Amino acid sequence: MQGNAQQQAYDRGITIFSPDGRLYQVEYAREAVKRGTASVGVRTEDGVVLAADTRVRSPLLERESVEKLHKIDDHIGIASAGHVADARQLIDFARRQAQVNQLRYGEPIGVESLTKGITDQIQQYTQTGGARPFGVALIVGGIENGEPRLFETDPSGTPYEWQALAVGGNREDLISFFEEEYRDDLDLDGGIDLALRGLDTVSDEGIDPEGVALGTIDVETEQYRRHETEEIEQYVEEIDTGGDEE
């Protein structure tokens, strides 16, 4: 009982470390991220792929209202998993940072600089009394100096750079899949195929084109593009056909 009482004391304050060096509220925020549906990102030679599971729980819910992919600037997109309202706050912050950089310096913001600006904002909420951590993880993808970049933000405020990653539900299974299937020489279509196959492997009912959001930023144009459902259907058909041939 005494041990539980001590843990509850550390639970109440985000600014208080437990004796073993843990911030319980940050760990709970990570658990909140896991409760969200998955989002994935893949970096290829030709650009970056962002995809998200946007299945709705009721046929009465408008699919367009489920926002998990976000355009930040012409050359940067973000996928989110976790608390939608928390994600919206960070998305708005990221867009302001991109606009300020363009106005102040006359050039697009770097993907790494933006990611670290976001994680600095997140980190402040891990050591501020009366606040709580953001219960969301973001995948930040874009083109910087002609090179594709792909980052993750964690509720602790730590940025990580990846070749392929997943956040949200089934994260471990998806990362294991990417570790087995990812290749350095993937082109953009190959990255889309890998991202969608990953989401398909963790879906009990199989992937539904209407329940997936897909965005890409290619090196040639350096423009974020959101793919329509009809395009996603074609990619899913190719996945199904490939599976039948094997």
UniProtKB/TrEMBL annotation:
Subcellular location per the Swiss-Prot or TrEMBL entry: Cytoplasm
InterPro entries: Ntn_hydrolases_N, Proteasome_alpha, Proteasome_alpha-type, Proteasome_asu_arc, Proteasome_asu_N, Proteasome_sua/b
The keyword Cytoplasm belongs to this UniProt entry's keyword annotation: yes
GO molecular function, one term: threonine-type endopeptidase activity
Residue intervals of the Proteasome alpha-type subunits domain: 10-32
Regulation affecting activity: The formation of the proteasomal ATPase PAN-20S proteasome complex, via the docking of the C-termini of PAN into the intersubunit pockets in the alpha-rings, triggers opening of the gate for substrate entry. Interconversion between the open-gate and close-gate conformations leads to a dynamic regulation of the 20S proteasome proteolysis activity.
Alphabetical list of NCBIfam families matching this protein: arc_protsome_A (TIGR03633), PRK03996.1 (NF003075)
HAMAP family for this protein: Proteasome_A_A (MF_00289_A)
Name of protein: Proteasome subunit alpha
Source taxonomy: Archaea, Methanobacteriati, Methanobacteriota, Stenosarchaea group, Halobacteria
